[in-house]
Amino acid sequence: MKTPKILIGEGNKVLRAKSEKAGIKKAKEILVEMRRVLKKQEALGLAAPQIGENYRVVMCSIDGRFTAMINPEIMSFSLDTEIKEEGCLSLPDEWGNVERAYSIELEYTNEEEERVKVYLEGWNARVVQHELDHLEGILFTDRMKKKKGILSL
Description:
With 153 residues, the protein is α+β, with helices and mostly antiparallel strands. The protein is built from 2 helices and 7 strands; from the N terminus they run H-E-E-E-E-E-E-E-H. The chain has helices at 24-40, 122-135; strands at 45-47, 57-62, 65-77, 81-87, 95-101, 103-109, 115-121.
């Protein structure tokens, strides 16, 4: 089977569309394709829109292990934030500082069709927030902190 192509570009209409909820059968089909992509890429996560599927399905590295999340929802964000550099498979060679909540409470359905509730912090919370942004048509560059500097003439 052929590995799906990763969609790229800030103006890509699929990447900019809001994703719809996924049924379990469709989500499992998408997850098979996402695993193929992640085996070939050095990435911490992948969202279904990045392979052309506008469904609410992501795979995120949590503590070094990929976790499939179907119809994930962030239930709460901490008031504490941190700014870290991010990149994205859909925006190759682009990097930038993004402010995100330090911790989140998350609910999602797993592949066994169980509803899971987790508390994540630090890098794990950042990866999930980044991937869930894709489900809303948001790219990390939309959230980048602009560097202030002196304009040179």
